[in-house]
Design a protein that fits this description.
single chain, mainly beta, 7-stranded mixed β-sheet, 11 strands, 48% strand, globular
């Protein structure tokens, strides 16, 4: 089975940067794409960013667009989320997820239910 392991979380001051990683084991990335989600304290899980494997197209939530960058390293079976200009509201547990199958038509990257495999999460805390 494919397993996803997040790492790189930690404590950072507001305005700082942090990069979290998601490493896949069990197989190489061969699904439709991968997304990052986060769950702030007391809130529901929300979409952060995603990348489509076929062409590398990226998608971002409005709240992080211009500050966060999702990227991949196929040789390492790893996806990264570079987070810059961090704010206190970015504090959350960050999860990576894989969508395996290609959609029939369009795909809603924001919908967590459309992803198949999830990591355990990594805590990111932004202090002010």
């Amino acid at each position: 089975q494919v397993q996803l392991v997040e790492s790189g979380g930690g404590l950072v001051q507001a305005g700082g940067s942090l990069r979290v990683s998601c490493a896949a084991s069990g197989r190489t990335f061969s699904g439709y794409g991968m997304g990052w989600f986060r769950q702030p304290p007391g809130k529901e899980r929300e979409f952060v960013a995603a990348i489509r494997w076929s062409d590398g197209n990226t998608y971002y939530a409005n709240s992080v667009k211009g500050r966060f960058t999702i990227s991949r390293d196929n040789a390492k079976n790893t996806v990264y989320l570079q987070m810059n200009s961090l704010k206190s509201e970015d504090t959350a547990i960050y999860y990576c997820a894989v969508r395996d199958g290609r959609p029939v038509f369009g795909f809603n990257w924001y919908n967590a239910r459309l992803y198949d495999i999830w990591g355990q999460g990594t805590q990111v805390t932004v202090s002010s």
